[in-house]
């Protein structure tokens, strides 16, 4: 019975890594679509979000069954509860990538990001892609140094979020109301993407250390 339970936990971990890889791919494609007005790429991100939703459902069902059948305690229970919360965060990150792609699709054939903000959003794209890759590695390795790096990367995303809004308020910005709205929304989506990554990093710290505040990541 314990061997079967261990195998189920291993499959749970594998499913979370698979979800994270999908998120990583989605945010990278969504960012490219946003910056290049590639409507086909944007559409592919939106269509592929269903795969992430299906995986989240699989994870949730597995976790509920494990709790009902095995009545786990201690580390095993922490692992299952963490799996539920991480899958929810990954699904939301996928939704945010879909929202970024949605902006690109809606304004096609125009580019959603004007030249005044292009450099900021190129940095957003790079930071979000690095964060997503770090989350995947964290789920694979459970290395607390990676957890700390994700928190640091989120500081970069938060700074870019502030820069995006400051540039909107600059006297030199003469974009339309729709451009202003798209910039504000896209910046918010990236900022929330980073927040969910931080939430996952804190959940892994809790899983490894038992620190429910997620403050014991190495640096």
Written account of the structure:
The chain has helices at 2-36, 39-70, 74-107, 115-141, 144-169, 177-209. The chain has 219 residues and is an all-alpha fold. It has a single domain (2-209), classed as Methane Monooxygenase Hydroxylase, Chain G, domain 1 (Up-down Bundle). The protein contains 6 helices and no strands. The model has no long low-confidence stretch (mean pLDDT 92). Helix 1 (2-36) runs antiparallel to helix 2, helix 1 packs antiparallel against helix 4 (115-141) and helix 3 (74-107) packs antiparallel against helix 6 (177-209). The protein is elongated, with a radius of gyration of 19 Å. The longest helix has 35 residues, at 2-36.
Short description:
By secondary structure, this protein is an all-alpha fold. It has helices spanning 2-36, 39-70, 74-107, 115-141, 144-169, 177-209.
Q: How do the strands and helices of this protein lay out in sequence?
A:
Elements: H1 2-36, H2 39-70, H3 74-107, H4 115-141, H5 144-169, H6 177-209
Helix pairs in contact: 1-2, 1-3, 1-4, 2-3, 3-6, 4-5, 4-6, 5-6
Describe the structure using short key phrases.
219 residues; Methane Monooxygenase Hydroxylase, Chain G, domain 1; mainly alpha; 6 helices
Low-confidence stretches: none
Q: How many DSSP H or I helices?
A: 6
Q: Rg from C-alpha positions? A: 19 Å
Number of strands: 0
Distance between the termini: 39 Å
| Helix-strand sequence | HHHHHH
Strand count, sense and barrel status of the largest sheet are: none
| Percent in strands | under 5%
Q: How many domains make up the 3D coordinates?
A: 1
The CATH class is: Mainly Alpha
Q: What structural class do helix, strand and pairing data support?
A: mainly alpha
CATH architecture descriptor text: Up-down Bundle
The CATH homologous superfamily is termed Phosphate transport system protein phou homolog 2, domain 2
> Averaged pLDDT, please?
92
Q: How much helix is in the residues?
A: over 70%
